[in-house]
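Aggregate trends can hide what the representation actually does to any particular protein. The sequence in question and its structure tokens are set out directly beneath this paragraph.
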Amino acid sequence: MATTGASAVTAEDVVAAQEAIGDVARHTPVLVSSTLSERCGGHVVLKAESLQRTGAFKIRGALSKLHALGEGCARGVVCGSAGNHAQALALAAQIRGVPCEVFMPEGAPIAKVEATAALGARVVIGGGSVDDCLILARARAEEAGMAFVHPFDDPDVVAGQGTLGLELLADIPDLATVVVPVGGGGLASGVAIAVKSARPDVRVVGVQVETVAAFPASLKAGRPIGVGAGLTIADGIAVKRPGDLTLALIDRWLDDMVVVGEDVVADAMVLLMEKAKLVVEGAGAVGVAALLGGQVVPAEVGTTCVVLSGGNVDAGLLATIARRHETKAGRRMVLLTRVPDRPGALAKLLDSVAETGANIVEVSHLREGIGLHVRETGVQLTIETRSREHADAVVGAVREAGYGVSRYPDAH
């Protein structure tokens, strides 16, 4: 494909890509979400692309690009990526017998770095962002005669990602709305081309996270506009600048672009773990976040499908998100109080908590940094409770026992 702009990728290109990648890429399942259907209205299903090989949709585009390159990648392929594209290209290259090098930013998740190396790719850590890594990868490609594979701004990659849309058409006869995460725009534009070429009535909505949301301003200006790097839970879509190709395609094919906040993305990840039993990374959960936050309303008639684009997330981050959710739900709190510095004083405090049936997770002594009498000790308790009401009862019992209490989070 040599053309650029809104006509650079066609539905026929997506069909051809499906034939090229079918021996490796999985046809991932569509799962009904009763929780989201009841909470948000309409009939909502989840496209579990988090169960794709390498844990994300990116393998589709990587395989499509290698097929298009043919002998052009005999000396190897190279890319810049924060993780998912890196893993996908590494696996595609391994299967097709092609050398692979990957440049990953310094802040890339450890799990993604290790997974990429385990697939046989040479991993180079360098640059503070994906954009820096793309520059390094292009330079390496020119130096070594390797083929550079862009993570999204490439017609062959977009066509490969669009094969997910063909699966939606095959699996959901009454498809009405598709909600797709947007980073660089390759997945959203490919899916929209595949779906709307066959069913122009289907609404396709892209979702970005507010910390790194370059598309709204770029679409308004009619040209790619970069945004500053921001710390985000959705690192997989933390792209600071849209590509020229994907901006044109999204402007042509998508019906809407919405933005969601970090907190609701974390809530969406927990909901997917608890209710759908799916581990989904922040980038993959933004579509669910858009439903929870009201930025997207499910179709009144027909099925709304939310694409869960990836599931590669560090276990440590999952644990942090789970603890945060327990706190928000009133099932975990921290109490700060003070006790006389004498034998038995701490035991009396702990007994007052134990009598309520709460579970004390951690006890910390604080002797510095807060205003204490010379014969007092500060005590911080991390406590698990059954509900907000139970948490209130614990605080009340501690106060009745004669202790002044500061509580986090505050009950009000």
